[in-house]
């Protein structure tokens, strides 16, 4: 089996993004395989899911040790997601592996990427509103330690089914689409609790989908092996970097990449795609600054980070510790 160094390097870079932001595994890996390495869509989905099944437990163990996982939410999500992911694979197998099926997978993947890019923006906006409410005293402080929430079993099962089916078809959604659903259903969860719960629930989900693709899909070890070799150390490096770099910038870049990949997969012409992307670059920054100012924050996240750091350095150690706790949860340094 010939090892492709470029594929290993790409997997390493994507692993770093996953470790840094908690998102982007399937949403980046599968389109990279399809668009840059000419891997058939079905093979790309199969190989990516197997790699994800190995990567997800790495971050899950860390969050379990820190108590940032709600195992009841994980249980109800897994009840819906694991069988739905397997069913998604069976549907792909029933449709066959001809050109029409490969084209359908590309279209489904493009739509999933568009939803994910939109979800990243929605998630950032929801976190901004949450921080504004806490700052103004209109919301109770987020709880410390493990999350204590009123579980909604039926909603969790349906969310798991929807996310699992999409993951089984496209490999996208285990770390992006479902986390948006968790935010909508449980807005009181802290960022670390959202990431921890989502990572752990993704383990049975992607394992089920990976098993289905290994049995019935189009798994290619020549593609899967380089993904594993590059992505596993990449996730570890990204996790180490997450404590030092601003996750907000990475998430914005990730949303832009997802949009560009989605347009390509959906067959949008180069001219139209370029116009859409340039428009996004021109509109998104001033819109983001306007929204931040409307909620009482500086226009630039880096300005807020500097002001927070200066305030922390001007007070004693106990107050500095509190400021550090708040800073970890805000959009400027949030690891999501």
Tell me about this structure.
- The protein has 336 residues and is mainly α.
- Helices cover 77% and strands 0% of the residues.
- It has 13 helices and no strands.
- Helix 2 packs across helix 10 and helix 5 (99-135) packs antiparallel against helix 10 (247-265).
- The radius of gyration is 20 Å and the shape is globular.
- 47% of the residues are buried.
Quick summary of this structure?
The protein is an all-alpha fold and 336 residues long.
Structurally, the number of domains stands at: 1
The low-pLDDT segments are 142-147, 319-336
Q: What is the molecular shape?
A: globular
Radius of gyration: 20 Å
Through-space gap between termini: 36 Å
Number of helices: 13
Hey, roughly how much beta strand do the residues contain?
A: under 5%
Helix content: over 70%
H/E element order = HHHHHHHHHHHHH
- What is the mean pLDDT? 77
Main beta-sheet strand count, sense and barrel state: none
- Total beta strand runs: 0
Structural class: mainly alpha
Outline the secondary-structure elements.
Blueprint: H1 5-21, H2 25-36, H3 41-65, H4 71-95, H5 99-135, H6 153-170, H7 177-185, H8 191-216, H9 221-241, H10 247-265, H11 270-294, H12 301-313, H13 317-329
Helix pairs in contact: 1-2, 1-9, 2-3, 2-10, 3-8, 3-9, 4-6, 4-8, 5-10, 6-7, 10-11, 12-13
Descriptors for this entry?
globular, mainly alpha, disordered C terminus, 336 residues
